[in-house]
Specification:
single chain, mainly alpha, DUF92 domain-containing protein, DUF92_TMEM19, membrane
Length: 454
């Protein structure tokens, strides 16, 4: 057994202290506070120090890695008595992190591929999180086994994403991210059968693996897509997922279409066209927000219909913009959307009629799928198409006027001196704003003409 695996096992044992939370009640944080104090001020050397120490701990002669993990767990534990967070959320979050780390360390002994380590973290964390919730059920309220799997898998996917996108060893950030997600999902009170959760996991994981195998998504893009898909299936339904996966699949294949020519023209996506988490989130964050609002609508003085139209409209815009950019960039006659002057291919805000036709096709495709799966009326499909085209136009207008400009420039120097004033507006920001505009347009049009979901 290697040192990293032994250390991960020791951290997992510390994480297992969370299982006492139902018995300790408001004092659930106490064991972790004790561990943090011992790690930071008492254990300076010896076998225990070597077991838990990370490379930086040797320089400081203190187990700051363990102390940080324990303090984060203690802080999360306090959310239960202070703010009413369910105990199972705390237990599941701690065990997903510690169990996922242990599984990842075990796999790294044999395989060094990043994707293998990521999958191990997700699978190991999910199993540990389910176990924790089932144990909690003997002494405190806990979700059904089917929901326990959904909660644990969602937390593990988010934890893996945070580790990949930000800091691998930032346990506090990962732990609190998972805890807040699980708290939100628990508050939404979703319902799902055992068969439903199995199908949801198989379908979303299968499409994620296919996207990675086809090199249309990076590891972070794959994990982001699987997480978004799982939430769509459970909180919305398989019809919502059909629209989402059509965008992911269609957008990924469009990015690969004539990739060599795009690369020679300087228009290709990086990473050989594989889309990462930033790209996936920029195009699907609004849709994800819509499905969360849809799930919360029974608890709000709102109907669910506008959120379904907002969801479909945002994806119609994302699909329209992606196809128009990927197809239109192959032609040599772009014109700037604001002045109609000829511009070089790849210019922000440059459009071609071929790209516009491709974008219209993308919006129509999402609208037709909405007609089949949401379901909506033909008038609703037309509304989604119009919103998708509007989002595509907004994307081009924002690209022409604001993309690659510093934030401070937009406010005539009023933000001078602020840290973010020199940050440039990127393509992901423009994509997000365009999908948001399309979602608002779609929901507003549907409300104005009295459209409802069938």
């Amino acid at each position: 057994m290697t040192w990293p695996l032994r250390r991960a096992g020791a951290f997992a044992l510390v994480g297992a202290l969370s299982l006492a939370a139902p018995l300790l009640g408001p004092a659930a944080a106490a064991p972790f506070v004790v561990v943090a104090a011992l790690a930071a001020f008492v254990v300076k050397d010896g076998p225990a120090f070597e077991l838990f120490a990370r490379p930086g701990d040797h320089e400081e002669r203190a187990l700051y890695g363990l102390a940080g993990f324990a303090l984060a767990a203690a802080g999360l534990a306090l959310f239960a008595p202070l703010f009413g967070m369910p105990v199972f959320v705390f237990v599941a979050s701690v065990l997903v992190l510690s169990g996922g780390n242990l599984a990842e360390a075990a796999v790294r002994q044999r395989r060094h591929e990043p994707v293998a380590a990521t999958v191990a973290f997700i699978v190991g964390g999910t199993l540990a999180g389910v176990f924790g919730q089932l144990v909690v059920g003997f002494a405190a309220p806990a979700p059904t086994p089917a929901l326990a799997v959904f909660f644990a898998a969602s937390a593990a996917l988010l934890g893996a994403l945070v580790r990949l996108a930000l800091f691998v060893r930032d346990d506090p950030l990962v732990l609190f991210s998972m805890g807040l997600l699980l708290w939100l999902l628990a508050a939404l009170e979703p319902t799902i059968t055992p068969i439903g959760v199995v199908l949801a996991l198989l379908v979303t994981a299968g499409f994620g693996a296919l996207a990675y195998a086809l090199d249309t998504a990076s590891i972070t893009g794959m994990v982001t897509g699987v997480l978004a898909g799982l939430l769509m299936v459970v909180l919305g339904g398989f019809g919502w997922f059909a629209l989402l996966i059509t965008f992911f699949g269609g957008g990924g294949l469009a990015g690969k279409f004539r990739y060599d020519r795009k690369r020679k023209r300087g228009l290709a996506e990086g990473n050989d066209g594989a889309r990462g988490s930033a790209n996936v989130l920029a195009n699907s964050a609004v849709a994800l927000g819509a499905v969360l609002a849809y799930a919360a609508s029974p608890m709000l003085p709102l109907t669910s219909g506008p959120f379904e139209f907002a969801f479909a409209g945002s994806l119609a815009a994302a699909m329209a913009d992606t196809l128009s950019s990927e197809i239109g960039g192959l032609f040599d006659t772009p014109r700037l959307i604001t002045t109609l002057e000829p511009v070089p291919p790849g210019t922000d805000g440059g459009v071609t009629w071929q790209g516009a036709v491709a974008g219209l096709f993308g919006a129509v495709l999402i609208a037709v799928l909405g007609l089949l799966f949401l379901p909506i009326s033909p008038a609703g499909a037309i509304t989604i198409t119009l919103a998708g085209v509007a989002g595509m136009v907004v994307d081009s207008l924002l690209g022409a006027r604001f993309e690659n400009r510093a934030v401070g420039e937009l406010f005539a120097g009023a933000l001078a001196g602020l840290a973010f004033a020199d940050r440039r507006i990127g393509n992901q920001t423009v994509n997000f704003l365009a999908t948001l505009a399309a979602a608002l347009v779609c929901a507003a049009l549907a409300a104005a003409i009295g459209l409802t979901v069938l």
